[in-house]
Write a structure and sequence with these properties.
This protein has about 675 residues and is of the alpha+beta class. The chain has 4 domains: about 200 residues, D-amino Acid Aminotransferase, Chain A, domain 1, CATH 3.30.470.30; about 110 residues, OB fold (Dihydrolipoamide Acetyltransferase, E2P), CATH 2.40.50.140; about 120 residues, DNA primase, PRIM domain (Alpha-Beta Complex), CATH 3.90.920.10; about 170 residues, DNA primase, PRIM domain (Alpha-Beta Complex). It contains 14 helices and 32 strands. Strands 3, 4, 5, 6, 7 and 8 form a 6-stranded mixed beta sheet that branches. The longest helix is centred in the last third of the chain and has 18 residues. The protein is globular and about 75 Å long.
Length: about 675
């Protein structure tokens, strides 16, 4: 048996009969600070201008992931091949893939050129952290302990200067000016005693030589020169979920880059102008869906919130558009104080065998339903003090109830990486097929293409998504094996704030009665917000266009019969004082919050199944929350939706014909 075969055999033996494989983990991210922190508590590393990369070595296989969990092993084939010679059973390395310029500084533009050309032999992997080695999880150990283990691990293999240990320094007075003079990107400063925490914290700080960050490409302006591709890119960023205009960039491109980017832009959907007002120098822009991210260097922000002297650096393939916000540097004094608070006295917390009464620490990883929960003490709902651990335990307690509604269906999430007062993302796709344990991928035909959606089958998949930051579960109204044939339809009664609550309850009752007229049994639930859902199970016989047409006809009929109470138009301007009978949930790729799904809103509301007899003016959706639902479920002798999956019913073809709806 050769050395590689021996390592595979050892790795299999180390994993035992369960055959557990190492999985992608969320990397630790640095917070932007306005100066380098001083003092003996901090060590400093060069900030590289490349792609953040986690390398997972397991069973003789090397997989290299981007910071968002994309499998980029093929892009980094040469580095992956070299890492196979590392004498280790399994490991997770954290570092940066770079290409150096003639001055020895990392160059993002050169890295992009190498990858675009399909080359990887010029790449270098600077490794600065070690999360796992030979089955041992090191994330609870101090930074310097992890780096010592990393340096020792890499020293035993000659990588011919392609895999390099990233050294750290303890003196900092002249580091930043010196690095900036060499055209480096900046410094990463780290608390020497910090543990490894996924996500953005204050124990890692980044201090940049130049103002530079990612922006979402929201459009472009046409060039007057034939064949140039475009004149400039129009840029934006997200601010609490709202897209803001950041200006335009028209320099930093070469001819090849112009044509490549134009080709990418032409594949995007053209959309209406996403901003109400724009400066006059923008001109006539072509606006596209915000799907591409680029990196731009600039001198400063103008008082109007525009970039001054921007220069294009390259497309960023490793960052999702919805995660791109405006970089704001934190005063170093505040950052140092926050970092000290994050560092715990016990830097090697062990959750196995942990006494139940022991105080919970951020370094603990608590096991719930077979899934390890990181940062269990993080507050997810600030208004109620609900922690991430409590959230996961809630979903574990209702897993048997929610799974019939979300399992084996294309699934979308509302993800909250920090807390509900911060950024929220509507996540339709996984970052990478193998990026989450117990979560699978289902291929769904969407228009002229096929897209990959999430799919879970059991409680471990459910809890894996909650551990990943998922709070709201939005399943399709069809099953994974037949995504174009819905097996349920839904009416979402969405009230304007000025609408009387009685009109909402009357509207739900009217939908029920109209369904009965068509021979259909319906079920009632709260939305988890301020409205109500009426859900109708049906046989998967017709496609989405027919079901959408049917629900639209019902909604428009209600609006015609009671125009002062109901509206079938989603325009908020026209909705004042009325209830929007939202039928738009009944379409390909459209979703609604599942029964027993929490909502990422203050109050921690839960979409709760109700008996029809509970539909009275005294009904208050605010009473159905994560805090109150366990008591309700415990006291219930019968399930209001007990017959939901037993109902066998469908819309008669003659009804669709009468409504002039094509059943195909």
């Amino acid at each position: 048996m050769d050395d590689a075969g021996y390592r595979v055999a050892r790795a299999k033996a180390a994993r035992g009969v369960k055959g557990a494989r190492l999985q992608f983990r969320e990397p630790e991210l640095a917070t932007l600070a306005d100066a380098v922190p001083r003092g003996p508590d901090w060590v400093h590393e060069v900030k590289f201008d490349g792609y953040r990369t986690l390398a997972i070595l397991d069973a003789g296989k090397v997989t290299m992931y981007s910071r968002s969990g994309l499998d980029w092993t093929a892009k980094y084939a040469d580095i992956a091949h070299r890492l196979k010679s590392l004498k280790v059973d399994n490991a997770i390395l954290d570092g940066e893939i770079v290409v150096l310029n003639e001055h020895g500084a990392s160059s993002f533009s050169r890295l992009k050129a190498e990858l675009t050309a399909g080359r990887s032999d010029e790449l270098q992997y600077y490794v600065f952290d070690l999360l796992v080695v030979n089955g041992e999880d090191l994330t609870g150990q101090t930074l310097l302990s992890r780096k010592a283990r990393l340096e020792q691990l890499l020293a035993g293999t000659d990588f011919h200067n392609h895999v390099i240990y990233s050294e750290h320094f303890t003196e900092n007075a002249s580091f930043l000016p010196h690095l900036c003079s060499l055209d480096m990107e900046g410094i990463i400063s780290k608390r020497f005693d910090s543990t490894y925490r996924g996500g953005r914290g204050k124990t890692w700080l980044k201090i940049k030589c130049h103002k530079r960050q990612e922006f979402v490409i929201v459009g472009f302006t046409e060039s007057s020169h034939a064949g140039r591709g475009f004149r400039s890119l129009l840029l934006g960023y997200y601010d609490a979920g709202t897209l803001r205009f950041a200006g335009k960039v028209g320099t930093g491109f070469n001819e090849e880059g112009l044509q490549h980017i134009r080709g990418r832009l032409d594949k995007l959907t053209v959309v209406p102008k996403p901003f109400k007002t724009l400066p006059p120098d923008v001109g006539r822009g072509v606006w596209v869906e915000p799907a591409l991210v680029c990196e731009v260097e600039f001198t400063e922000w103008t008082p109007e919130g525009r970039l001054r002297h921007p220069s294009f650096q390259g497309l960023r393939e490793d960052k999702a558009p919805e995660t791109v916000g405006r970089d704001e540097s934190l005063p170093v004094q505040s950052a140092v104080k926050a970092a000290k608070a994050e560092v715990t006295a016990d830097t090697q917390a062990v959750t196995t065998g942990r006494h139940p009464a022991a105080p919970l620490k951020s370094t603990d990883r608590i096991l719930v339903g077979g899934i390890g929960v990181s940062h269990p003490d993080r507050i997810v709902f600030p208004d109620l003090g609900i922690t991430k651990l409590e959230l996961v335990r809630f979903y574990d307690s209702v897993a048997d109830r929610i799974l019939p509604h979300v399992a084996n269906r294309p699934l979308s999430l509302v993800r909250v990486p920090d807390n509900i007062d911060g950024q929220q993302f509507f996540q339709r796709h996984l970052p990478e097929r193998g990026g989450l344990s117990h979560v699978k991928v289902v291929e769904v035909p969407v228009k002229a293409r096929t897209e990959d959606y999430m799919q879970i089958e059991d409680a471990r998949g459910l809890l894996s998504l909650v551990q990943w930051g998922g709070i709201e579960f939005h399943p399709w109204g069809s099953r994974a094996e037949a995504p174009t044939l819905p097996d349920r339809l839904i009416f979402d009664l969405d009230p304007d704030p000025e609408a009387p609550w009685k009109n909402v309850t009357d509207g739900a009752a009217e939908v029920r009665d109209r369904m009965q007229e068509f021979g259909l049994t319906s079920f009632l639930k709260t939305t988890g917000g301020k409205g109500l859902h009426v859900v109708v199970p049906i046989e998967p016989k017709y496609g989405w266009p027919a079901i959408k047409g049917f629900t639209r006809a019902v909604a428009e009929s209600m609006a015609r019969d009671s125009p002062t109470r109901f509206i079938a138009n989603m325009s908020k301007a026209k909705r004042k004082g009325r209830i929007f009978i939202d039928y738009l949930r009944n379409d390909l790729t459209s979703t609604a919050a599942s029964a027993f799904s929490m909502r990422a809103r203050p109050g921690a509301g839960v979409s709760t199944p109700l008996f029809w007899r509970e539909l009275t003016p005294k009904l208050s959706p605010a009473d159905y929350t994560m805090k109150t639902l366990p008591k309700r479920l415990k006291s219930q002798k019968t399930d209001p939706w007990a017959d939901f999956f037993e109902v066998r019913q469908g819309i008669e073809a003659s009804i669709l014909s009468a409504l002039k709806i094509d059943p195909q």
